């Protein structure tokens, strides 16, 4: 149902409703994930990606008949993002377009949504995620699937990082394979704190998480407490304190940053300065076609290469020279 806010309020007069706005965006397969991430970062309560032709004769199947090639991705995806009723949607769309490096906001429409039990709706979309044989991401309302594994207890919230996005999974897999124990770790752009908490649970000596968004820092602190992390072993801040532990600068054995390509390029001097000689860096939130440009920004100080890739996203890594 679509109607302007005043007409909607009048039509629903006499009923107690929560003012939700559903924004439906038509885009392409290259930008849909970036726009989805941007919507969550800009306050969306949830996002959903689907085929814009779903339910019609033009719906595109992702899996063909046996022996036929599968499409693998929707050619004309549609993104739905849910916001509170007082959200400035035009401003959100402008900011999302900028995050996706689009010259103008994509085509979109607005629908007003009646009240539902959004807690149950949201919870039904999140199940435990197995990252590796020893690492799971588990919402707090689910039973622990493997008591002998490392179980990160994490609920979806305003900050990015629930373990569902390919770039987050790539970072978790990389940490699982490369943390030997006893390392000092920097998680820049920590979001929900998922990577920082995972690093500590997997044996890091001390972890620092940085995010310019105070809400993300608060979410990270809450998630650290939820996972019973010691405040002496893990800390979160909105800016990084100046610190050098060697004559060449740098204190972190491991630097991980799961953001987006353009911010990672701009952050190259800061992240390089934080890594000690011989320390390793892992960068994600990068589309495959952006990998060369990001690697070029770090190549002077690191031996960079593509370590992992999934669904068009890559993880870059290298050792400090």
Automatic annotation (TrEMBL):
Primary location recorded for the protein, binned into one broad class: cytoplasm
E.C. designation(s): 2.1.1.-
CC per GO annotation: cytosol; ribosome
Reaction(s) catalysed by this chain's protein: L-lysyl-[protein] + 3 S-adenosyl-L-methionine = N(6),N(6),N(6)-trimethyl-L-lysyl-[protein] + 3 S-adenosyl-L-homocysteine + 3 H(+)
Superkingdom of source: Bacteria
GO process annotations (BP): methylation
Single Gene Ontology MF annotation: protein-lysine N-methyltransferase activity
InterPro entries linked to this entry: Ribosomal_L11_MeTrfase_PrmA, Ribosomal_PrmA_MeTrfase, SAM-dependent_MTases_sf
Compartment(s) of residence: Cytoplasm
Chain positions recorded as S-adenosyl-L-methionine binding sites: 168, 189, 211, 258
Entries under Pfam families matching the protein: PrmA
Classification via Gene3D superfamilies: Vaccinia Virus protein VP39
Alphabetical UniProt keywords: Cytoplasm, Methyltransferase, Ribonucleoprotein, Ribosomal protein, S-adenosyl-L-methionine, Transferase
Enzyme class: transferase
Described function: Methylates ribosomal protein L11.
Family assignment from sequence similarity: Belongs to the methyltransferase superfamily. PrmA family.
Official protein name in the record: Ribosomal protein L11 methyltransferase
């Amino acid at each position: 149902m679509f109607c302007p806010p005043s007409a909607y309020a009048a039509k629903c007069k006499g009923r107690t409703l929560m003012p939700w706005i559903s924004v439906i965006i038509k885009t392409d397969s290259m930008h849909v994930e970036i726009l989805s991430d941007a919507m969550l970062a800009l306050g969306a309560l949830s996002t959903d990606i689907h085929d814009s032709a779903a339910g019609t004769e033009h719906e595109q199947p992702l899996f063909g008949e046996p022996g036929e090639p599968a499409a693998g991705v929707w050619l004309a995806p549609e993104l739905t993002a849910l916001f509170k009723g007082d959200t400035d949607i035009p401003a959100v769309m402008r900011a999302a377009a900028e995050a996706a490096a689009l010259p103008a906001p994509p085509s979109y429409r607005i629908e007003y949504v009646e009240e539902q039990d959004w807690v149950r709706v949201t919870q039904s979309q999140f199940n435990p995620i197995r990252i590796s044989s020893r690492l799971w991401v588990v919402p707090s309302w689910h039973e622990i699937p493997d008591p002998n594994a490392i179980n990160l207890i994490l609920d979806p919230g305003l900050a990015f990082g629930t373990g569902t996005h390919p770039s987050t999974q790539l970072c978790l897999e990389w940490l699982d394979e490369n943390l030997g124990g006893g390392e000092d770790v920097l998680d820049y752009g920590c979001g929900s704190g998922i990577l920082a908490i995972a690093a500590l649970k997997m044996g890091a000596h001390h972890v620092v998480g940085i995010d310019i968004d105070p809400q993300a820092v608060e979410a990270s602190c809450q998630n650290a407490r939820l996972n019973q992390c010691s405040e002496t072993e893990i800390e979160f801040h909105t800016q990084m304190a100046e610190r050098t532990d060697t004559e060449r600068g740098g204190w972190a054995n491991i630097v991980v940053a799961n953001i987006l390509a353009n911010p990672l390029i701009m952050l190259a001097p800061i992240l390089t300065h934080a890594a000690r000689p011989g320390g390793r860096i892992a960068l994600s939130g990068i589309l495959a076609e952006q990998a060369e440009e990001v690697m070029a920004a770090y190549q002077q100080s690191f031996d960079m290469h593509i370590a992992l890739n999934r669904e068009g996203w890559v993880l870059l890594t290298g050792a400090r020279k």
